[in-house]
Specification:
The structure is a single chain. The chain is of the alpha+beta class. It has 3 helices and 16 strands. Strand 15 and strand 16 form a beta hairpin. The termini are far apart.
Length: 288
C-alpha cells in the first residue's frame, strides 16, 4: 500500500513538473514574439541629408506595393503643433490642418501612389525643416520614420595682413554654416598647419560664422588652403591662396595690377593726345 502511494506521488510530481515546464515555455515564446514585434516596430529612421534651398524627397514605400490613391497617407512631425506636414485623403490633398511653415512646399505624386510609393517631396528646404518625420498609412497601420538633416554651407574668403618682408598673416572667414563647421589650414603639399583657435559666432538666423588665422612665410610660389568642413552633413568648402615675397594673390597682387592698369591708361591717353595734336599740325600745314 505504501509502495502504491509512493508511485502515485511520483507520478503527480512528474505531471506537475511537466505542466510547469510547458507553462514557462509558452511564456517564453510569447515574450520572444512580443520582443520580435517591438524590434520590428523600432526600426531606426532613414537618414536624409540636404542643404538649405534644395528640394528633397522623404522616402516611404508599401511592401508589397499597393495602390494608395484612394487611401489616406499622413506625413507629420510629432514635435510640431499642428504636427501635420502633408495629408493625402481619398484621392486629394487635405491640407486644412497643415503646419503653416510647410504651406506650398509639399506634395505627393499620384503616379507613385498608384505603385505604393508614399514619398513626400519637400521643396525649398529651410533650416527649420530639420527634424524627425513620420509617414503613416492607416489602412495597414504602417509607420516609417525619416530623419531630415538640413545643412547650410558657404565658401571661405581669405585675406592677407602684412607683418614684414618675410611673414604674412592669413585670415580665413566663412559665413552661413549649419551645423557648426571646423576650419583647417593646409600647405601646398596638403599638410595640416598649426593655426590659432577658431573664432565662432552664431547669428540670429542660427547660421555660424567661423574665422581662423595662420602666420606663414613668404616664399616663391607658396600656396595655402583654408578648408571649412562639416562631417555631419558631409560638406567641405575650401579656398586656395598663393603667397610669395613679391605678391600675395587676391590682395597685394590686386594692388599691383591696379597700379599697372592706371599707368597703362595714362599712357594710352597721353598717346592719344600726341596723335591728335600731330594730326592738327598736319591739317594746318596742308591748308597753309
Amino acid at each position: 500500500m505504501c509502495g502504491l502511494n509512493d508511485g502515485l506521488s511520483l507520478k503527480a510530481e512528474l505531471s506537475f513538473f511537466r505542466a510547469l515546464v510547458l507553462q514557462h515555455t509558452v511564456i517564453l515564446l510569447l515574450l520572444t514574439g512580443s520582443c520580435g514585434g517591438q524590434a520590428q516596430d523600432a526600426q531606426p529612421p532613414l537618414r536624409m541629408v540636404t542643404l538649405v534651398g534644395e528640394d528633397v524627397v522623404l522616402p516611404c514605400r508599401l511592401e508589397p506595393p499597393l495602390d494608395a490613391v484612394s487611401k489616406s497617407v499622413e506625413w507629420a512631425r510629432p514635435d510640431l503643433e499642428p504636427r501635420f506636414v502633408h495629408v493625402w485623403h481619398e484621392g486629394r490633398d487635405l491640407l486644412i490642418n497643415q503646419n503653416p511653415s510647410y504651406r506650398g512646399r509639399t506634395s505627393v505624386s499620384i503616379d507613385k501612389l498608384k505603385q505604393g510609393d508614399l514619398s513626400l517631396l519637400l521643396s525649398a528646404v529651410k533650416l527649420s525643416d530639420n527634424g524627425l518625420y513620420r509617414c503613416y498609412f492607416p489602412s495597414k497601420d504602417k509607420k516609417t520614420h525619416v530623419e531630415l538633416v538640413v545643412g547650410s554651407v558657404a565658401s571661405p574668403v581669405i585675406a592677407g595682413i602684412n607683418i614684414n618682408s618675410t611673414a604674412e598673416v592669413l585670415q580665413c572667414e566663412s559665413t552661413g554654416w549649419y551645423p557648426e563647421p571646423e576650419v583647417f589650414w593646409l600647405d601646398g603639399e596638403g599638410n595640416l598647419l598649426s593655426a590659432g583657435p577658431t573664432e565662432t559666432v552664431r547669428g540670429p538666423d542660427d547660421l555660424y560664422t567661423v574665422s581662423s588665422r595662420v602666420t606663414v612665410e613668404k616664399r616663391h610660389s607658396n600656396s595655402f588652403t583654408c578648408r571649412v568642413q562639416q562631417n555631419h552633413i558631409n560638406q567641405t568648402r575650401e579656398t586656395e591662396i598663393k603667397v610669395s615675397a613679391d605678391c600675395l594673390e587676391f590682395t597685394s597682387c590686386s594692388a599691383h595690377v591696379a597700379v599697372l592698369v592706371v599707368f597703362v591708361l595714362l599712357f594710352i591717353v597721353a598717346a592719344a593726345c600726341v596723335v591728335w595734336k600731330w594730326r592738327q599740325i598736319q591739317t594746318k600745314g596742308e591748308f597753309n
